[in-house]
TrEMBL record, chain A:
Protein keywords: Oxidoreductase
Organism: Junco hyemalis
Protein name (record): Glyoxylate reductase/hydroxypyruvate reductase
Family stated for the protein in its record: Belongs to the D-isomer specific 2-hydroxyacid dehydrogenase family.
UniProt keyword Oxidoreductase, yes or no: yes
Record-level GO cellular component terms: cytosol
From TrEMBL, chain B:
GO function terms (MF aspect): glyoxylate reductase (NADPH) activity; hydroxypyruvate reductase [NAD(P)H] activity; NAD binding
Keyword terms: Oxidoreductase
Domain D-isomer specific 2-hydroxyacid dehydrogenase catalytic, chain residue ranges per copy: 29-331
Record's protein name: Glyoxylate reductase/hydroxypyruvate reductase
One GO CC term, this protein: cytosol
Domain of life: Eukaryota
Pfam family, one: 2-Hacid_dh_C
Species name: Junco hyemalis (Dark-eyed junco)
Family named by the database record: Belongs to the D-isomer specific 2-hydroxyacid dehydrogenase family.
Residue ranges annotated for the D-isomer specific 2-hydroxyacid dehydrogenase NAD-binding domain, each copy included: 121-300
Amino acid sequence: MESQELPYVLVDCIGGRLGVYEDHLGFLKKRFHLITMKEYLENKTLLSKKIRAIYVWYHKPAINEELLQSLPNLKVVASAGVGIDHLDLKLLSSYGVKVSNTPFVVSTDTADMGMALMLASSRRLVEGHEMAVSPDTEYFPVDWLGVEVSGATLGIVGMGKIGYKVAERAKAFEMKILYHNRNQRKKEEESAVGAIYCKKIDDLLQQSDFVLLAATLTPQTHKMIGKRELELMKPTATLINISRGLIVDQDALVEALQNKVIKAAALDVTYPEPLPRDHPLLKLKNVIITPHIGSATKKTRWVMMEEMAESIEAGLAGLPIPREVLP
Amino acid sequence: MWAPACIMEEELPWLLVNEVGGIRGILHSHVPFLKKHFHLITMKEFLENRKDVGKKVQAIYLWWHKPVIDKELLQSLPNLKVIANSGVGMDHLDLNLIASFGVKMANAPRAVSSTTADTGMALLLASARRLVEVHNISISPSMDYCEADILGVKVAGATLGIIGMGRIGYKIAVRAKAFEMNILYHNRTRRKVQEEQAVGATYCKKIDSLLQQADFVMLVVSLTPQTHKLIGKRELELMKPTATLINISRGAVVDQEALVAALQTGVIRAAALDVTAPEPLPRDHALLKLKNVIITPHLGIKTDKATYMITEEAVENILAALNGLPLPSEVLPS
């Protein structure tokens, strides 16, 4: 049977809230025999030797040592998106498993999301929409104001591909751009967007009207923005997070927002995702939350899927893996 | 020598405003600045003492289209020299009537352009990424959704069609270029080649051509008899079914009924409206119920900074007019 000749690839689930998209199945099934976790668990003895790759979509399935031990022929793990903090790279490497991600295609959409959140928060777009459609609204008060983006100061924490694309966009809004990064960017890159390097994050925090987090989650960036950092920020400043929830000390953030230590927050990422339904962040008027949709456009998700398929095929053919992530 | 404050104040020119504070009035934070240059009179004070006050009023500062300027008012202000408008749209004023009384008019173009362009981009991005919808999902008790169903539209590489490429439209083009968008524009007159090249914008002499190609159509025109209901059934049907309409100009530029029908039947994908006719819409209006519509309460220039700059620009124009100097942003009747 033809489908038995196709490589077996493990996925978490198909459809539903966070599963592999139905629209993507046609493309994937032409290349792979997809096995869901449910199917695998129901038939481990037969399937465990056949699975040669794992297609990690929305960070699922979670890959632990137990799973790796039971998949002796696993060669490649392809992960959707750029963040790989959900994968234990050393562990995977110790089992001889190669890893790939999709770092480039996500950059523009994620940068756009950062800008969308900054604009929506500053101009009170969500609140405004509620007012515009509320059954109780009789008029629009003229003293109902937002905060200016054009000409304001944006501090970008983490100036990788995504952070840099944010800077390119912010420049067109005549924003003053500060950035903090592990390494300083080249002079030409800085001048192209008019970005000023802040070796000390404190300098960035003290001067920015908008602080945008675009850093990778690592042990060093874990809870990088805590009580101390929030207190360094201006009381008129807004925190925007498009990186990972764990980069922020969430309890400290709640307190800072409640006590007006900072003005507002706009978060595409939290910890966990989603937040428990009784979490204080969900109730604060000065918070916009989106469900980790940084790269969630039809086009980009399609390209991500194609890239993951490509990486799996290359890995299984013993060829160099495009977008390989080294431990 | 000690000079009583009341004498000092009376030397300042008298400026008529509709009201101070409240839901429609001049912002309290602007009053000290205005009082530095003028003796402020509200409509209420004027109406209580028309004869005496009327003679003294030399200028009017219109705040959100009020007070209404009609023949009766103009006749009762014999020494009126200038009317300064907050904002740039002048469609609420009878320019010929005002000019016939020898009164000059000014608007505030410099103060509004960046902020209004920001509003346009905020709406474009919010609509493309379904921001209001997904925020509501994020805070909902059940979080009942499928990610595949809430995917947005990629902005980079998409085509933005700007209808009305004045100061505000151009600032939108500058911003959109940074988002790697292709830019088309339609305008009464074509812009200079260098201006087009600076933002990579292509002129569409025929609006149809723009409508057929754009993924996002942004309306940035002034409201005039020619632009009234510029976007109707025909224009909406020319647009792609995947396209989004964004309006930051005036509600009356769009045939609202045609828009509702187009949104309900998938003729276009979505709309984001900072302006409607009227504002606010009646609470039972169809637009309020559509999932694919974002409506904002005329955010346009509603920031601390922009509103203050508008007042500054208005004062500049008024003082110029009262001193017989050229106005920085005079508006002449067409």
